Amino acid sequence: MDVTDGSEEEQRGSEDLQSKMLDFRQGDIVSVPAIPLLGGAGNVEDHRTPLGAAVISQTCDLVQPDRVTAQLALVRELDPIRAKEAASGKRPRFVALPEYGANLFADLEVIATVSKDYLATLARKPGVPESDNTGGRFGRAVGRRFSRFPFPDELHPYLKPLQDLLQSKASKTASPLGLALESVTTLRLESTGGWRSSPPFNLVLLIVVAPGVLPDLDDSLRPLPKKLADWAYKAGSLYRSPAQIASKLTNAADPVDLTHLWQMLGDALADNCLSSGLASEHATAVEAIEAEVIGEDEFTYDRYLRSEELDLDHLSPPTPW
């Protein structure tokens, strides 16, 4: 066989590979018994994947001829409580695979690189729906795992009440506080002096809620009704707990009351965070924590850039598997 014949055969093989790769999408599940990981001794070891592996490479990279590899993540089954936390985005380590199973997730802690030649030989099935919106959500979730902000260690005692709250309410959505948290799209933290500044920090806890949760008032700065003020404050300080405020919020119908109760809930959470931190060895790390409750449809891009998202992986100690 001359050189020309070899080149033509190689080209046909490349075209055949690309033709097969056109069927693959980010979020697909492939049937593979194991994925390769580099062990402690520098040897390649097989990491068993009894539930298969999820393709986490972007779809555009899978179909590009000049991309010769793809990334696979272990598929793991989570218990119902942890699955609910992960599905809501509170644990970026895990990305939901709703088409594969309600409690099945791509574990981004266990990732391997394989050749596309090998990937093309594997049976595949969708892990996410064909909807572009859902597929985009999967890609954003994968990206978020590798772009999370490293909060200063001194802040962990201040954030512990949020960790306790999110974990304790994850399986109790029927409670007033659980119901309120179901309306929260995300929790974010902002440092008014920027994150490059030195302690003490002045922080803003941003509680972003779904559109329509906050009443649409002509004047959002309407005075706090006296009856509600007498219920919530003593000597000028908020003394109701988040659970008490959430219970009041559940039964409130007046738009003005609803607006103020949501802000009270944010203030109570911020107060708990500050009290927790002040009782720790990092009592001087934070000067103040304010809260702001804002609708998702009013959360600006500028605010997004100035704040960082909180999640259980940020707030929790490492979990053994």
**Could you give a short account of the major beta sheet?**
6 strands, antiparallel
Element order: H for helix, E for strand: HEEEEHEHEEHEHHHEEHEEHHEHEH
User: Which band does the percent of strand residues land in?
Assistant: 15-25%
The poorly predicted ranges are 317-321
Describe the strand arrangement of the main beta sheet, using strand numbers: 6-7-5-4-1-8
Total number of helical segments? 12
Rounded Rg: 24 Å
**End-to-end separation:** 54 Å
- The averaged pLDDT comes out at 86
How many domain modules?
Answer: 2
Which class best fits the helix and strand makeup? alpha+beta
Please estimate the helix content.
25-40%
Tertiary shape: elongated
The number of distinct β-strands equals: 14
Outline the structure in words.
The protein has helices spanning 3-21, 59-63, 80-87, 116-119, 132-145, 156-169, 176-182, 226-232, 242-251, 255-278, 301-306, 312-315; strands at residues 28-30, 34-38, 44-48, 53-55, 69-77, 94-96, 104-115, 124-126, 184-191, 201-209, 233-234, 237-238, 286-295, 307-309. The protein contains twelve helices and 14 strands. Helix 7 (176-182) packs across helix 9 (242-251) and helix 9 (242-251) runs antiparallel to helix 10. The strands form four sheets. Strands 6-7-5-4-1-8 form a six-stranded antiparallel β-sheet. The longest helix is centred in the last third of the chain and has 24 residues, at 255-278. The protein is of the alpha+beta class and 321 residues long. Strand 11 (233-234) and strand 12 (237-238) form a beta hairpin. It has two domains: 3-145, no CATH class; 153-315, no CATH class.
